[in-house]
Amino acid sequence: MGPRFPLLVAALASCLPPALGCVICDTKVVEALKSLEMDYLPGHLETEHHKNLMKRVNQAVQDFKDLPLDEDSYMGVVDEPTLEKASWSLLKDLKRITDSDVKGELFVKELFWMLHQQKETFARYVALFQKDAFCPNKCGMMLQTLIWCSNCQKQVHACRKSMDCGERNVKVHEMEDMILDCELNWHQASQGLTDYSFYRVWRNKSETLLYKGKEPTLIKTMVEPKDAGTYRCQLGTVKSSPATIIRFHVKGCFAIGLRRILDTPLIP
Ligand SMILES: *[C@@H]1O[C@H](CO)[C@@H](O)[C@H](O)[C@H]1NC(C)=O
């Protein structure tokens, strides 16, 4: 992994006040805790314990974010689907408890045992996100909306990797289609993308724009020998750097011999 990860950890650790936790960034969770206090506690716990219990519950939910900062499991940020999954899991468990109508000390015990387990569930989801969905681009730049667990702020994060997304060798046969595919699997998940541009790159290094638009593939039907050569695609972003650049080296496999036979008139 590149040196950007420790920088992100440092940035997250230094400049943000420790306050909120990730599932608490979801308004559904905030509402559920309010409803627990207003609707469930009366009738299920003596009034004098309400305030202290809610203080401990809020603290426990905020503590979800206090996981060891680690490049492989938790960086203090999540994406929206991960947050959604984690808070759904918590809400489901909370509903199970309130549906059971449990009271008094048993209720308190179950509640905190559940919160303890949900923190582990949160840690598991975040580790999965960190492994598979945090900056999944191997090259180029991906823009990803992340939620900072320490203050619930949403920000677009630029995942910058090596700008070189490689070269592709493409073989084409005469009269067939030439297909140049510029799409990488993370493009669908990236935000702030603009257009794909395809250029023909000439020997003298000058370029001619062939296509600019939303299509990630350039298709030329009925290729001719003159189509062999170098091409370049570039996917733009709303920022100054492009998301992806790929070069294509197109080699023609032209059956000169066969063509000569076919071109020869059958009847002289
Ligand atoms: C470069 O080569 C292409 C194709 O051979 C030609 O059309 C273009 O004018 C050339 N550009 C320069 C700057 O020489």
Please specify the SSE layout and strand pairing.
Elements: H1 4-15, H2 27-40, H3 50-62, E1 77-78, H4 80-99, H5 104-133, E2 141-148, E3 154-160, E4 164-173, E5 178-181, E6 193-201, E7 207-213, E8 217-220, E9 229-237, E10 244-253, H6 256-263
Parallel strand pairs: 4-10
Antiparallel strand pairs: 1-2, 2-3, 5-8, 6-7, 6-9, 9-10
Helix pairs in contact: 2-4, 3-5, 4-5
Bound molecules: 2-acetamido-2-deoxy-beta-D-glucopyranose.
Give a brief rundown of this model.
With 268 residues, the chain is of the alpha+beta class.
Give a description of the structure.
By secondary structure, this protein is α+β, with helices and mostly antiparallel strands. The chain folds into two domains: 22-133, no CATH class; 161-253, Immunoglobulin-like, CATH 2.60.40. The protein contains six helices and ten strands. The protein has helices at 4-15, 27-40, 50-62, 80-99, 104-133, 256-263; strands at residues 77-78, 141-148, 154-160, 164-173, 178-181, 193-201, 207-213, 217-220, 229-237, 244-253. The chain has a five-stranded mixed beta sheet with strand order 4-10-9-6-7, with no helix packed on it. Strands 1-2-3 form a three-stranded antiparallel beta sheet. The longest helix has 30 residues, at 104-133. Mean pLDDT is 88; it is low at 1-19. The structure holds 2-acetamido-2-deoxy-beta-D-glucopyranose. Residues 202, 204, 206 line the site of 2-acetamido-2-deoxy-beta-D-glucopyranose. GO terms for molecular function: protein binding involved in heterotypic cell-cell adhesion; signaling receptor binding. One of its GO terms (biological process) is fusion of sperm to egg plasma membrane involved in single fertilization. Keywords: Signal. Residues 168-252 form the Izumo protein immunoglobulin domain.
